[in-house]
Structures are given as C-alpha cells and as structure tokens.
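Worked example 3 (structure in, sequence out).
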C-alpha cells in the first residue's frame, strides 16, 4: 500500500470567512434570484459534501477507459466503502481497512479509524486517487482551498447526472491546492456527481452512472479470499 504523502500540502477543510472576490456573475445555489460570491459558492458545495456524511446511499461511478468504481455509505454505525480498480477502502469508527486487490490474493490492512465527527484526511485516499476514484473528502479540501485563494476563478452551471440535479463549478488558476484547475458537480443530496481534473499529477475523471438511497451491505465485506493484517493498537 503506497504511503500517503502526495496530498500533504493540500489545504484541509476548515471553517473560514470567505470574503474573496474571485469572479462575478454566478447564481446562488439556494436562491436563483440572488447573486453569490464564488468563494461562498465553493464553500457551500464543500459544506454540502461534508453534510452528506449523514446520508445512506450507494453510488456507482464510470471512470476513464470504461472502468468503474463505487462509494457506499451507511449509518448506525457510520461507515463508508470505496471500491476502485486495484483496491478497496472501508472507513468506519472501528477501523480503516485498506485492501490491495491487484494481487492474486488481496491483502487488507486494518488501522485505527477516524473520529466519527470528522471527515477522513485526504491523504488516506492516495491509492484510490491513483486507481481513478476521487473521494468526497479530497474534493472538499480542493473546494476549501479554492475559496481561500484570491487568484482562483470560478464559474457555475447546473446539470442533471444519472437523473439527479447537480450544481457544478469550473475552477481554474488555483495556487494553493493539489489541483490548479478542475470541474466538480455535487448533487442536491450532497453526493459527488462528477469530477474531472489532474490531482497531484494524476488525471481523474469520474461521473455517477447509478445512485440509490440505500446501502449495499456487501460493500463492507472484505474481498473474497483476502488476508487481513490488523495493525490497530492492542490487536493480537
């Protein structure tokens, strides 16, 4: 499993007073009759993604080249599974489970899970990013960095993805994030609808192909035949 570090310079999602004038002419997400500053726009989308951690859903994504990936999230207890080419990541308060599925027998490494009140750190998703799947936590960090960058330019449009309304932003000239330009769409529910950009030198392009308001419980199972290595404190 690749050691995290490529995303170390990414600005994490933090609360900030967004008073930056990045560009003009964008419509408000909440009220189309009002204008909204782009910094507020990207902060609102970041907040929508963050609040979606309380949702239960299954989202299938189409990747470049015909590959596919999946994000499944459930509550009570809160847990999220990320399936992508070459790997699988399961994040819960009990453990963070990283699986390498590129070998004949998958190997899954368990480590301490994140606090239930916080988003996982973007560095956790380095392997998923390399596999073509960008996680909402990474997009939150990119949007937050955009809001804090006075050089950034943001344009908005609305679209429909897999039958779901989504608000989209086209971002460019960002100086303080892992991606200097990217497109991101967030559905009304708060799921990541699509993303296209180069993140830490890795081209990523995904779009929802199917969305359900239920969680497929099999997503939280280890790959068939996987060998597990438990590195949590106190494990045998």
């Amino acid at each position: 499993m690749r050691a995290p570090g490529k995303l170390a310079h990414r600005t994490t999602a933090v609360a900030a007073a967004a008073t930056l004038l990045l560009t003009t002419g964008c419509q408000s997400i909440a009220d189309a009759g009002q204008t909204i500053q782009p910094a507020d726009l990207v902060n609102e989308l970041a907040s929508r993604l963050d609040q979606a951690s309380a949702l239960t859903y299954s989202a299938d994504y189409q990747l470049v080249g015909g590959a596919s990936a999946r994000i499944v999230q459930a509550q009570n207890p809160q847990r999220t599974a990320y399936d992508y080419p070459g790997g699988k990541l399961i994040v819960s308060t009990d453990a963070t489970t990283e699986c390498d599925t590129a070998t004949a027998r998958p190997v899954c490494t368990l480590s301490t899970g994140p606090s239930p009140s916080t988003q996982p750190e973007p560095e956790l998703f380095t392997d998923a990013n390399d596999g073509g799947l960008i996680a909402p936590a990474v997009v939150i960090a990119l949007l937050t960095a955009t809001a804090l960058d006075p050089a950034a330019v943001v344009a908005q449009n609305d679209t429909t993805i897999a039958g779901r309304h989504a608000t989209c932003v086209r971002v460019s000239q960002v100086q303080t994030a892992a991606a200097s330009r990217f497109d991101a769409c967030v559905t009304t529910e708060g799921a990541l609808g699509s993303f296209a950009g180069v993140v830490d030198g890795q081209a990523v392009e995904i779009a929802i192909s199917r969305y359900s308001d239920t969680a497929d419980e099999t997503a939280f199972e280890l790959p068939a035949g996987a060998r597990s290595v438990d590195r949590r404190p106190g494990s045998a």
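Notes: The first strand starts at residue 57 and ends at 63. Residues 1-36 have pLDDT under 50 and may be disordered.
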